[in-house]
Amino acid sequence: MDPLLIFIQSLNGLQLGVMLFLMAAGLTLVFGVMNLINLAHGSLYMMGAYLAATIQQHTGSFLLAVLLAIPLTTMLGMLVEVVALRKLYRRDHLDQVLATFALILFFNELVRIIWGPQAYFMAVPGLLSGYITILPGVTYPVFRLVIIGVGLAVALLLYFIIARTRLGMLIRAGATNREMVGALGVNIKLLYTIVFGLGAALAGLAGMMAGPILSVEVGMGESIIILTFVVIVIGGIGSIRGALIASMLVGVADTFGRVLLPPALASMVIYILMATVLYWRPQGLFPAHG
Amino acid sequence: MVKLRLPRLRQVILLIVLASLILVPLFSDLFYTRLFTRIMIYGIVALSLDIILGYGGMVSFGHAAFFGLGAYTVGILAQHGVESAFLAWPAAILVSMLLATVIGAISLRTSGVYFIMITLAFAQMLYYFFFSLEDYGGSDGMPMISRNTFAGLMDINQHTTFYYLVLAILLLVLFVSLRLVQSRFGMVIQGVRENERRMRSLGFATFRYKLVCFIISAAIAGLAGALIANQTLYISPSFMHWTRSGDILVMVILGGMGSLFGPVLGALSLLLAEEVLSTYTEHWMILLGPLLILVVLFARRGIYGLLTGAKNGG
What we know:
The complex is a heterodimer.
Chain A: H1 3-34, H2 41-59, H3 62-83, H4 93-115, E1 131-135, E2 138-141, H5 142-164, H6 166-176, H7 178-183, H8 188-210, H9 220-235, H10 240-260, H11 263-266, H12 269-280
Antiparallel strand pairs in A: 1-2
Helix pairs in contact in A: 1-5, 1-6, 1-8, 1-9, 1-10, 2-3, 2-4, 2-8, 2-9, 3-8, 5-6, 9-10, 9-12
Chain B: H1 8-27, H2 30-55, H3 64-79, H4 85-107, H5 112-131, E1 142-143, H6 159-182, H7 184-194, H8 196-201, H9 206-232, E2 234-235, H10 242-255, H11 261-280, H12 285-298, H13 302-308
Antiparallel strand pairs in B: 1-2
């Protein structure tokens, strides 16, 4: 195989991996801290994309769209947490799955009512729309490089927040022993809402970066949420480090599968990867709790 | 003589529903015959999920995979000229069982959230497999020319004949499943649901029991898949889409899990609600979503539980 092609595909894989990480980090945080399995995480991704697309259409500015849509998605996430999900933390996983499945139905229909069934296309902002020469004779879309850059920056920021700040300390403590954190006088309800908002912000960011690459449409969240599940199952549920490594693994495996294998087989690659990992390590690569 | 331990109230409800189901084709037009055929087929799938969910405590979010596998087996065989139901339907069951053996053997190594996500992921894998399988319709799906044949014994192209065949299969599956969960096997499965470690200490090979239970459930779902292929005469990957798995899960919970009969009621009420609400608004999902959340939060025992006052896993 041509080494240049390998290089380009590795970048594509990295870009998919970064998107998956943004989704997986939020999902795994919410699971780790609140013990909540949130199927509707993909809906926040979709809402982020729709909000950004709408703002871009009205103002013509991608930057403004991102700056406004992230806080909006965060607020939406917090609202959902306060109205519906808060009551589910103590329920078993079956209830959580059903209720968040219902949320997906609700959000999909809501989008259909507000924006209609047709897909939206977001324009790549002018500054980032070109191609850049990364190696002699090799060009690559600037926007995809930006996605990789933003994703890696967010991963670093997340690491900083969790490892170095007071909020991060509380999140880690909450993931280890919820009752104890509450008993020590921390406002656990507020902490939960903040963590959920953080996850929503990451999902929204992923959604609005996906907007110009893919089309913005109903159900866009569902195709990525399943991949995200595969990622956090491989990485070990609740582990950010596991999510990072697994998302890169899945991103690269999926991209190369599509290049090298016939389509019917290519679509199965990551699931086979997941099955293999689970066969050796049923708790994922980096299980968070014992 | 076979004994079925059923409280009286349940017998009454069972009889009322059964009687109405028998009467449907006699007093209504083709539309309702077809609608209720579909409802009964989904009733069979929901019932099969209840065996592993309500009795085995295994929350599978990929049950539609086996439903779709059954449908595709029948469809692919028909495309190659195998039209006899005596061959195609057992083949559908067998294929579902084979895949369930593989999927179950890997998934059942895990539990809890992992199990939910893995069954979901495996179902999506099969979905994408058939989605990109161009020889058999790919993303468009594939039509079936006519319904399966019964060597001249009956003609299920007649909607009424097909209706009564599906009803008979539903009753047979219901009966066999009730016997199954009340058997020694069923007791072990329920024991595993309550406390797997204790059952293992008592000397039961719990993994094998769970796997066999998973395979039985998939076999029934595969049979239902064969039926739905005959009902719609059109097989598409959407049969195994994960929202379909979600719908089936909703039917079980809505009807009341751990009762076998409840999920059939769940399928009945969900599909009827869909039918009624969609005549008022095309956006009926926006009503169903919040309604479902309320059921999950406040009415865990489902319709069947409300009707009979029975506890889960009765």
